[in-house]
Design brief:
By secondary structure, the chain is α/β, with parallel strands linked by helices. The protein has five helices and five strands; from the N terminus they run ααβαβαβαββ. It has a single domain, classed as Vaccinia Virus protein VP39 (Rossmann fold, 3-Layer(aba) Sandwich).
Length: 181
């Protein structure tokens, strides 16, 4: 299995299905938060998610090679949600995004509360996750996401199907969950 993740990470950016998913997720992000506006140049954004860390370790290396001037790649273990995000750089985010991550978390609700504490007032948490379907029961239901966002003390919550992607001749629905502090 580790070799497969390493191979996937090496060519992740070139995978057509990955790029399609990323394009659709970004379009749905823009429909809710205009991160391309000039005011967002000074905002703090965290892209959360790493699973076991094996794939992320490879992804961070690819990200470093891109040498993006406004991106600081870091890999930090937040754990099971019981630790507080106390480091200065792990607080006051204007936006935290989690793409295809939360449905894999063993304690999604607890960790979401921890991430909520790292968001600045009027900041956003936006997640994309797989919706269960007739073909595949894996994923998060809109009701579960809505409850978790509300329990994490977001003032405004919105959950809906954002898009679908085709994988192995199957249309897999993806939900977007949005919480605003």
């Amino acid at each position: 299995m580790p070799e497969n993740w390493s191979k996937a990470a090496a060519n992740w950016d070139q995978d057509e299905q990955v790029r399609s998913y990323a394009d659709k997720a970004f379009a749905s992000l823009l429909s809710h938060v205009n991160v391309c506006s000039p005011q967002w140049k000074s905002k703090r954004v965290l892209d959360f998610g790493c699973g076991t860390g094996l794939l992320t370790e490879k992804m961070i290396e690819v990200l470093k090679r891109k040498q993006l001037s406004n991106v600081i790649p870091n890999c930090v273990e937040i754990g099971n949600g019981t630790q507080q995000l106390t480091a200065d750089w792990l607080a006051d985010f204007d936006l935290i995004v989690a793409s295809s991550v939360c449905s894999f978390l063993p304690n999604y609700k607890v960790l979401l509360h921890t991430l909520s504490n790292a968001i600045a007032p009027n900041g956003y948490f936006i997640q994309w996750d797989w919706l269960p379907s007739e073909m595949n029961d894996f994923g998060l239901t809109p009701a579960r996401v809505e409850r978790a966002l509300n329990d994490a003390n977001f003032a405004q919550v919105r959950v809906e199907q954002a898009f679908s992607v085709e994988v192995d001749n199957q249309h897999l629905p993806v939900l977007i969950g949005i919480g605003v502090k």
